[in-house]
Amino acid sequence: MARDSASNLTVRRRLLLVFILMCMLLGALLFRLGWIQFAMAEELQQKAWEQWNRSIPARSSRGNIYDRSDNLLAGSATAETVVAIPPQVEDPFFSARALAPVLEMSEERIHELITQDRAAVYVQRKVDEEVAKEVRLLNLPGITFTHETKRFYPNNNLLSQLLGFVGMDQGWGGLEIYYEDVLKGRDGNIVFPTDARGREIPGVRRFIPPKEGKDLYLTIDETIQFIVERELNRAMVEYSPERVMALAVNPQTGELLAASSKPDFNPNHYNQFDERFWRLFPVTDTFEPGSTFKLITLSAAVEENLYRQEEPYFCAGHVTVAGHTIRCWTSHKGGHGSIDFKEAVLSSCNPAFIVLGERLGPQRLFEYVRAFGFGSLTGIDYLGEGKGLVFKPEQVGPLELATSSFGQGISVTPLQQVMAVSAIANGGYLLRPHVVKEIRDPDGQVVSKSSREVIRQVISADTSRQVSLIMEGVIKEGSGVNAYIEGYRIAGKTGTAQKVGPEGNYIPGEYILSFIGFAPLEDPQILLYVAVDGAKRGPQWGSQVSAPLFRNIMKDVLSYLEIMPTELPDEEELHVVEVPDLKGLTVDEAGALLDTSGLLLKVIGSEGVIKDQAPKAKASVPLQTGIIVYLDDLWTDEDPEEVQMPNLIGLTMQETAEVLGRLGLKMEPSGSGIAVEQEPEPGIKVRKNSLIKVHFSSPQD
Amino acid sequence: MKKTSTENELRKPPDFAIFFTVLILVGFGLVMVFSASYILSLESRGDPFFFLRRQAFWVVLGLAGMIAASNIGYWKWRKLVLPMLVVNFILLGAVYIPGIGIEINEASRWIGVGGFSIQPAEFSKLALIIFSAAFLSRKNIRIENFWSSSFIPLAFTGGTFLLILAQPDLGTALALALIVGIMVFAAGIPWKQLISLLFVSTPLVLYLMISKEYRMRRIFSFLDPWSDPLDTGYHIIQSLYALGPGGLFGVGLGRSRQKLYYLPEPQNDFIFAIIGEELGFLGAATVILLFFILIWRGFKTSLTAPDSYGSLLAAGVTAMVAVQALINIGVVTGSIPITGINLPFISAGGSSLFFTMFGMGILMNISRYSR
What is the mean pLDDT of the segment spanning A88-109? Predict the structure, then answer.
């Protein structure tokens, strides 16, 4: 008994020890419980709430884009998106098999989507109406729809590069990306409680409404844009160039009126087009400006009183600068000879501009070049604007000074040229170009409005007037005569720039032919730049290619803007031209001869010298008449009954008839407009009296 | 001895605090099992009352067992020790016999016929508690002599431990070891031996914990459950997501969010989390308080037991409840690694509820003879 009680004491002590330990552990757990339920409660509650609630985005509708006259350019339509609610899908294999052919997706992919452990998954977004209808007919449990907006562009390719396009959820190019935040608005969402399998359970649904996007009203004029693109399309057919481009602005305000380059793309099906054509070349791409840049040198010289038009000048056809010979385009006939500065400028004489550049000196010339906005961004509201490259004054030796003064050795964007020449047109002010005129909220309230923004005054109003008058002379009596429009005073300048290859050297025979000008001279309302890059057909002369393109656009734009002619057609001799004898010349020589003549060269045949022409030499024809010249490779020596089929694409029906008649061929025409298709193909030998099928069409459609 | 002749005179009313505490816990369990399970049960079986009905069945069976045990002289179990050990090993072996053993999720923990199944490990706990109490209170035992005293119950426990571990059910095996360990400790094992034992068993337990890669990840995930929220940390995170929003008063009975598939099998091991969510800190603390009362009355019974057999037996069955409650609440509050131990009296469970209540019946019987 004694041993037992001693042992009992130990047992009691041990039991108490265990009891106390257990009580302490219980107390610790109670504390831990309190810690979780009070101290950690807020954080856990927050995380748990996130887990318990799901949300479906309520997409905001994207703002529209309109032109300056409220014509819709980009809009949003609702499209249906096929949504699966996996917890409600009863037979995923059956559903996937049924949906696969309708949605044109693989069964495996659909099965994978509709069995995900999520509240809702997109099966296919923004489907066509017919597809949605078919899916609805299948009536599958757990497969439902939600509305989303789908961007559409009613004019397809029109203005595509400026507008850009919208991918699944955001703008990807052009204004659509630049104004993404304005257009998009903010998505809202619907929050609802669910169980762990994603099924909604009764509770309070919360709706956070989306903020709708705002609308853009552009400075672009849809009609001018249409005219520009129509003519660019025509030029694409006529000259088969690599690309063509145009920019039109209001030189008084800096508002962009039209902007385009071809080839372009259709933003409704953007992914079917080469990415290269998503860019608006005249804003993004830089290249040598060529002769149009002489206007800058001229403006600087006039402003600094270094130019007098009556000052005599002798052009020998070439000058030597720092050991390099620089030629005038008249070098083949020994230069202009003894002329005055006015004539030198009107005929775009390179050596004369070198003299003006030397008089200015590198410091002053490049001050003006930079003041006109070259070498810096114009600040247009478009993403990806090019900046170009301009020499720093300390890099400029005599040779760089000489070439820069007539537009070589620097790179600029067409937009920079347009804004610089706008300064010449508007009294000397460099403006910031802009595309968006107004931003309005969904109620139509104007949220912001853009206005004329002067960056700086570059030249005086007086200089501006003087240079404008010289530019008018270019059109009346110089290389711009093919841009002349009866009754209007127009200022302009041609440009022929050699293309620079990837190595930095000039590519022989590859030119960018440009023309820049504005009208009416008295109160310039529109300034237009056009360029044809890498024309494969016709003479490589700005006066022969870009000047008529400028004219065609400008003529229609002036009449659309209801700008009345101000001059009476009284100077008879200006409007009737005597056709020179072109026989025996090469195409280049003929182009040089016709440069300031006001006649257009239409070349039939691919090489050799001119064998015949129509109209004949010495004939008197109206200004801007096309002279068809036949090269001697059309006829073969072996067989007089056989001719080589010429390329007729781009000719009018009348011109086609003349050409085929001269070659002794017969025409079977169809359609109307300009020639777009022919059979047989060019280069094929055909017998005389063969029937040639030619299809004519208007290039716009 | 005198007991047989005087048992009726010495017999007092049992400690009703134990009875009513168990009754409250079991009743509470019924309500919570129903609350936690009715939606899942409705959706998976088309019957919202499935778990409630099963729980009620076992509660009735458990009550009958508890009342019966409270009226059976606790020393009578001493005579059944050997058959009970034999049955223990037979049952543990039976889980592998096709037709009797039931395999669920690659674990063979159950035996049964038709819809009726039990976990032999639940019986093992009670059998080994009775065996250890009986052996360690033998007249001629010398507790200082390890090999002839403490070693014997520990050896049988070790054998059972390995069989349960093989099922595999590490949690129950460890709980069993802890319970018997507490009994050996209470019986007065010298500190030197105890420390030596710990030196031998601790590395063994650690080895078991980390020997399987999935176990180790699961075990340590409680330290930072958010490092693996979808796998090893999932249960703890979901448990905390239930407790946290519960706050002081809870979201209201039946209104748990976490039971909607977030917390798997909310009526089982994690039912304490649902209590904390629906009834808040007040509800959960009440449960802890009830367990405290039970443990307190259990140790009181142990300390006042008429003999060392009764004392150790009372300590054993009390430890059985205490160890499981502590482990379960520890797991649910993210305080210790996850081990599959359910909450006594409250979690939905068949045989475990029965045997725990039966143990409480034995405890009540001992309390009748308290000094």
Answer: 87
Taking an 8 Å cut-off on Cβ atoms, the answer to whether B243 and A30 are in contact is: no
Q: How many CB atoms lie within 10 A of CB A364?
A: 17
Q: Is A518 helix (H, G, I), strand (E, B) or coil?
A: strand
Q: How far is CA B306 from CA A180, A311, B53, B313, in A?
A: 87, 138, 40, 11
C-alpha A357/C-alpha A326 separation (Å) is: 14
Handedness of CA B228, B229, B231, B233 (dihedral sign): positive
Cβ-based contacts of A14 with chain B (< 8 Å)? 185-188
State the average pLDDT over residues A327-338: 78
The catalytic site residues of A sit at 291
Which of residues A65 and A342 earns the better pLDDT score? A65
Are A14 and B312 in contact by the 8 Å Cβ rule? The answer is no
pLDDT, tens digit (0-9, with 9 covering 90-100), for A562-600: 998 887 665 554 577 788 888 888 887 887 777 767 788
* All residues at 6 or more sequence positions from A153 whose CB lies less than 8 Å from its CB, including other chains: A73, A74, A75, A160, A163, A165, A266, A267, A268
H or E segment to which residue A588 belongs: helix A587-594
Token couple for A427: 């009294």
pLDDT cut 90: percent of chain A above it: 35
- Lowest mean pLDDT, pick from A144-153, A370-379, A394-403: A144-153
User: What is the distance, to the nearest Å, from the Cα of residue B231 to the centroid of all Cα atoms in its chain?
Assistant: 26
Contacts with A531 (C-beta within 8 Å, 6 or more apart), sequence order: A244, A245, A246, A282, A414, A495, A512, A513, A514, A515, A546
Query: pLDDT tens-digit profile of A434-474?
Result: 999 999 998 889 999 999 999 999 999 999 999 999 999 88
Out of B262, B299, B326, name the one closest to residue A26 (CB): B326
Residue B9: per-residue pLDDT: 59
Q: Do B248 and A45 touch (CB under 8 A)?
A: no
With 0-12 CB in 10 A as exposed, 13-18 as middle and 19+ as buried, what is B237? buried
SS3 A651: coil
Provide DSSP, A394-453: GG--HHHHHHHHTT-S-BB-HHHHHHHHHHHHTTSEEE--BSEEEEE-TTS-EEEE----
Decide if B285 touches A, using CB distance below 8 A: yes
pLDDT of residue A699: 62
Output the CA torsion sign for B14, B15, B17, B21. Answer: negative
What distance in Å separates the CA atoms of residue A300 and residue A401, rounded to the nearest whole number? 14
- Quote the CA–CA distance of B351 and B172 in Å, as a whole number: 13
Q: How far apart are CA A2 and CA A403, in angstroms?
A: 125
CB contact under 8 A, B187 and A11: yes
Q: What does each C-alpha distance from A521 to A225, A423, A475, A526, A555 come to in angstroms?
A: 22, 13, 12, 10, 14
Instruction: State the ipTM, two decimals.
Output: 0.94
pLDDT score, position A203: 67
Which parts of B212-341 fold into alpha helices (H)? 213-220, 234-246, 271-303, 308-332
- CB contact under 8 Å between A18 and B185, yes or no, is yes
The 3-state DSSP class for residue A16 equals: helix
Residue found by looking up tokens 């030499």 in the block? A617
pLDDT given for residue A701 in this prediction: 42
